[in-house]
Specification:
Blueprint lengths: L1 H14 L5 H20 L4 E3 L10 E3 L6 H19 L1 H21 L25 H23 L11 H20 L3
Antiparallel strand pairs: 1-2
Helix pairs in contact: 1-2, 1-4, 1-5, 1-6, 2-4, 3-4, 5-6
């Protein structure tokens, strides 16, 4: 759901144009940014079955991607953003960070715990859209296109005249990167 996450982050610019796009992109990837060191340390794991494929892996991110863990980590991200940019941008960035978990809930198999470390052995969550790759890919593409369109619509009204970095250029770059990532995921590259 990488492409979908970035599409949602781009849409965040329409909510508050003052929030830097880079911070929205970081917010939407925040849980995965923290997942990587825990994966390298063996605290969290990924199981990929033989042959792999789009969405075939089962992710055991029992801390960063637990419901309570995601809420706490998103709150931390939002709190730092409140300190840096103020209340509204901080709330937006905290919400974008938590949107990662919500989008993962839609696509993941039942591998998302409620409590960190799957304490209490509560049922795992996940609606499993990855089991239907075409539907998952179409959902990601739709989120990307909608998010980039909302970004472009908002950014063009505040664009600086004469700047070579135009909303159109940024929008095309976001779309191109999103399509490349989606194709890499879809073809298991």
């Amino acid at each position: 759901m990488i492409t979908g996450h970035f599409g949602l982050a781009a849409a965040g610019k329409a909510v508050d144009p003052r929030v830097p796009l880079w911070s929205l992109m970081l917010a939407t990837a925040w849980l995965d940014v923290l997942f990587v060191p825990l994966l390298l340390l063996g605290v969290e794991t990924i199981e990929t079955p033989p042959g792999g494929g789009y969405g075939a892996s089962v992710i055991h991110a029992d801390y960063t991607h637990s419901l309570v863990g995601a809420l706490m980590l998103s709150g931390l991200f939002g709190a730092v953003a409140v300190w840096r940019w103020g209340r509204r941008p901080g709330l937006l960035l905290g919400a974008v960070a938590f949107s990662h978990w919500l989008l993962d809930l839609i696509v993941h198999r039942t591998d998302l715990p409620i409590l960190p470390g799957n304490a209490g052995g509560l049922p795992l969550l996940g609606l499993g859209l990855w089991r239907v790759p075409v539907a998952s890919i179409l959902l990601e593409a739709a989120i990307l296109v909608a998010g980039v369109w909302l970004y472009w619509r908002t950014a063009r009204s505040s664009a600086r005249p004469g700047s070579w970095v135009t909303p159109g250029l940024v929008s095309l770059t976001l779309l191109a990167c999103g399509v490349v990532v989606l194709l890499l995921d879809a073809f298991g590259i």
